[in-house]
Design a protein that fits this description.
Chain lengths: 149, 249
């Protein structure tokens, strides 16, 4: 799904007359005009648009867009922060929208709940320290034993 | 409200409250994403999710959704993502159930489920597997409501009066929440167990055993009252469907 409002450079709150004026004389947009100029169809498009926008921004905050994924591949218009490879310049609805640059998470790192990977590594660290300490003590004892003999 | 920094009205949430509120918020996002966050939705949510804490009410959580409060949603997602794989999978099961509460999965619900699968380190493959296990049908592609071709296909499929629906029903209509439900038909009972009309007695038994295990209350108890409410409702339906379909002993 494309972000039709971003591609048309028009506010989402634009009324039907404004949209009709913008879409007039642009035959390449006929596929989408049939949706945007129909209240019922536009309502469903708008709901999906809002949900994808929120998901795209959350994905950016959770760093799920940075490496590319099925979402950035299928919904590049909504993948905030994702930079796709530059495409040839186009002016119709197929022209891609530069991903909006939004700041990442504003939750301080010390307050953000941990991911499973972080949590696992935190659980493992004390055990690793204990094992290393035991090995060092054993090594020292062995060295003393050898020196004493 | 400052759910974002894990506090509400200056009162910090403890770990258990934070998980329960996060689960509730994320399940409500699924339920409310089809654009019906109105009074009836609030009543539905209140009847389904009894308040366990006065710190964050269902109304507060719906406000988070209405205002697309990214910070609070992010905290909720990180909270659930930090739990065990078993609990994250159980959450996904409850979210799938929630998405099918009104007999169909809306496009927006479909997108949110796919997002949860990624955000909870489970992946689309697990989501598709769990969806099939719970609903007995494949999770459809979300579709593109911005394209006239998609609307045309929808009209041809005869599903135009239900434009947001792309999968078949498995549970009671949410509008009936609170009212005494009508008796379940044999067809509805099969849908609840994710079975077609040719299912054998062995398949009915197997579906019942599998779904009972998925919605066992012990599996979701740690996630708080919202998850328990979803599991309880679904579990009751599964029992009812099984009683109707099993052969008399």
């Amino acid at each position: 799904m494309k972000d039709l409002y971003a591609r048309l450079k028009i506010d989402k709150s634009a009324d039907r007359q404004q949209l009709a004026a913008i879409l007039k004389g642009r035959p390449e947009w006929s596929e989408h005009a049939a949706v945007l100029l129909n209240d019922e169809k536009r309502a469903l498009y708008d709901r999906t648009h809002s949900t994808l926008k929120t998901i795209g921004q959350l994905r950016q905050r959770l760093d799920l867009n940075s490496g590319g994924s099925w979402f950035t591949e299928h919904y590049p218009d909504f993948a905030a922060g994702f930079r796709a490879a530059p495409a040839p310049r186009q002016s119709g609805p197929e022209a891609s929208v530069a991903a909006e640059q939004k700041p990442g998470s504003d939750i301080p790192q010390d307050q953000a709940p941990e991911t499973p990977a972080k949590s696992r590594s935190r659980r493992l660290t004390p055990w690793l320290l204990v094992v290393i300490s035991v090995l060092l003590i054993a090594l020292l004892l062995a060295a003393f034993y050898i020196a004493w003999w | 409200m400052s759910f974002g920094n894990l506090k509400l009205g200056g009162v910090s949430l403890n770990e258990k409250e934070r998980l329960a509120s996060s689960v509730k918020l994320l399940l409500l996002w699924v339920a409310a994403s089809d654009g019906k966050v109105e009074e009836s939705e609030l009543e539905f949510a209140a009847s389904k999710f009894p308040e366990a804490s006065e710190k964050i009410t269902t109304g507060d959580l719906l406000d988070v959704i209405r205002s697309s409060d990214l910070r609070s949603l992010e905290v909720a997602i990180r909270t659930v993502a930090g739990e065990s794989r078993e609990l994250r999978t159980a959450f996904l099961d409850m979210a799938i159930t929630m998405s099918m509460a009104d007999r169909r999965i809306a496009i927006t619900e479909n997108h949110i489920l796919r997002f949860y699968a990624d955000a909870f380190y489970l992946g689309i493959g697990i989501l598709e597997k769990r969806f099939r296990a719970i609903c007995g049908s494949a999770l459809a592609e979300p579709g593109d409501p911005g394209s006239a071709a998609w609307w045309h296909e929808l009209a041809e499929s005869g599903d135009e009066e239900d434009p947001a629906g792309v999968a078949r029903a498995v549970s009671e209509d949410r509008q009936s929440a609170g009212a005494s439900p009508p008796p379940m038909s044999s067809e509805q009972a099969r849908a609840v167990l994710g079975l077609d009309s040719f299912a054998t007695q062995t398949e009915i038994e197997r579906a019942y055993q599998e779904l009972s295990a998925i919605f066992h209350l012990d599996r979701v108890e740690a996630m708080g009252e919202a998850a328990v409410a979803v599991a309880q409702e679904r579990s009751d339906k599964i029992q009812q469907a099984y009683r109707l379909l099993r052969e008399p002993v």
